[in-house]
Amino acid sequence: MAIASEGTRDNKTFLDEEVAELDGLVTNLDKTNTVNILNSFDTRLASLETSVMPIHKSTQSLTRLAGNMNQTVAALEAILSYFDLASREEAIVTRPLSDQDLQSYLQSIGRIRESLRAMSSVNLKAGDRVVQQLKRSLKIAAGQLDDLFKKLLLQNSQPLDLKIVTSSDRKDIPPFPQGAVQTLVTIAKSLADIDLDPNATPTGYLKSYCEIRANSMIKSLTPLNQSSLVELRGVYDKGSSPFIPYTASLLKLCRNEADLADTLLDPKLLSLAFMGSIMPPIEQWVETGRTITRRVRKTYTSEVGILFDVIETLETSMTTFESVFGLARRQKENDAVELLKVFKAAAMKTFIDFLGELKNHNNPKYQAMPLDGTVHQLTSDTLNYMKRLMAYQQTVEPILNQMGDGNWNNPESGASQNRRSQAAGRSGRSVVLQHYFADVLEALVQNIDAKSRFYKKGQSLTQLFLLNNYFYISKSVRTTPGLLEVINGPDAGNAPPNSLTSAVYERPLKQNVDLYQDNWKGCVEHLMDVTYVQDGGLQQVLNSSQRQMVKDKFKNFNHDFDELWKAQKQYSIPDMDLRTMVLKDVNQIMIPMYDKFLTKYASSSGGHGTMEFTKNAQKYIRYDVSMIKDMVHQFFTAS
């Protein structure tokens, strides 16, 4: 039984091994069949690909051709639409434009510009006509926009009232209405975008802008310009030149123009627009200034103050001018600097011309001589000129220094060839003005001395003429603030005897007062009397020779006094102080002597005299003391 069981186990084991081997064979067989199948599939797929690939390639080609055809059709449709658009938009842009339909108009311009860019990139003969039509429409549109821009700008660029122009506050200038600003900005931007010629500088609306704004400035400044050109009547008052507010108003309007251009225009065009709008009024201002200098050179004795007022104004305003021209980015030199040079050159020329006129004793301007011996026009003009220079001392001295001290005597020499160095006095101040005044006074006195020879027939008139002129010089120098200090230096109050004023006119003044008194010597000598003594006492009765001597004294006194009266009542001493000085000795010496002489010999005429010299006193005693006083008081009052 045991042997049988063991045999059964052996058979089962063998059987399991055989089954396992069989399974392995089956597995291997299955694997072998799959590879063959796959190999068969690969062969078949390769054959299929070979058959299908030409068909696939043909399909792709057809697809691409279809896409290209669709794109071509779309492009052709777009191009054909531009053909229609050109005509439609041309009808829109050619109609009259107003600011109410501006937006729709600008949209039309946008479509035209877009169409023009598209058509310009297409090389079609048929498209050339459309391109030209679009450009024509764009040009028409630009013209219409430019016209609207000018219209709106003109409406808001009316000349300003003079009160606004001359106001010191720039805020007084009325601003553009906000609606107009927005419209103008929109139009300006659109015009800048219309770029028919990329290499050209915009000239249409920019030119219109410059012309309109420049014209507005010119018209606003016209009243000041015209008043600046009016010739002066009378004496010029410091600071009264209309050119001063003209300059200030010009600068104010220029700054306003800078703000306006910055608001309305493209920043790239700002400097061009600003320069174009301000240069015409500035050029007119410069020409007005030049005209003033030419006029003042002919009338400088009365108008020289205008030159110095304008020079001071320009120097004070130079920083503002520089900022204005900086905004304009102008390469040329600041016009205000050039005008300042013109005014300074004119001032220098007046210094030279004035001294030249003084030295010319035959100057036709000053040939007329006063018949009454009063102050000559040359003297009054000279002292008034000096007073005017004193009013602008701080401006005059640097200009004289620039000329070169003493070069006013030699106009051909340069500033480097100074007669004197630019020295300073003890006070540390420049003495160039002192030197100029010294030359002026010296030339004036020499001219007046030469002119006094005109009075050949009347020595007393010559003296009175010199007295009048010397005294006028002296009084003007002493009463003009600062003039005496400039002429004599800082110690003018203690001027030495050899000072300029003493040498030039004070000593000659005193000498001529003494010379004039000689005219009265005859009258005084006739009144010189003697005391008659008889028998140790005063003689009470005159003998015939003594009576005749008294008669002759009265007769000769009457004659000489009458001659003086007839001649000198026609003469003139306008200044009361000088008249008192000249007649001082007459009133203090001659009249008391006449009173005493008359009292002594006038008994026969009803007086209380002590000695009778005639029975017919009225024949010899023509004047009483009160008459003499009244007549002397009337001397030199002709004018």
TrEMBL record:
Domain Exocyst complex subunit Exo70 C-terminal: 244-632
GO cellular component term of the entry, any: exocyst
Keywords, ordered alphabetically: Exocytosis, Protein transport, Transport
A GO term for molecular function: phosphatidylinositol-4,5-bisphosphate binding
Comp. bias intervals (Polar residues): 407-418
Main location: other
InterPro entries: Cullin_repeat-like_dom_sf, Exo70, Exo70_C
Keyword Protein transport carried by entry: yes
Gene3D superfamilies (UniProt xref): Exocyst complex component Exo70
Pfam families linked: Exo70_C (PF03081), Exo70_N (PF20669)
TM segment ranges: none
Keyword Transferase carried by entry: no
GO biological process: exocytosis; protein transport
SUPFAM superfamilies xref list: Cullin repeat-like (SSF74788)
Location(s), subcellular: Bud; Bud neck
Region (Disordered): 403-423
Role, per record: Involved in the secretory pathway as part of the exocyst complex which tethers secretory vesicles to the sites of exocytosis. Also plays a role in the assembly of the exocyst.
Record family assignment: Belongs to the EXO70 family.
Listed name of the protein: Exocyst complex protein EXO70
Species, as recorded: Linnemannia hyalina
Organism classification: Eukaryota, Fungi, Fungi incertae sedis, Mucoromycota, Mortierellomycotina
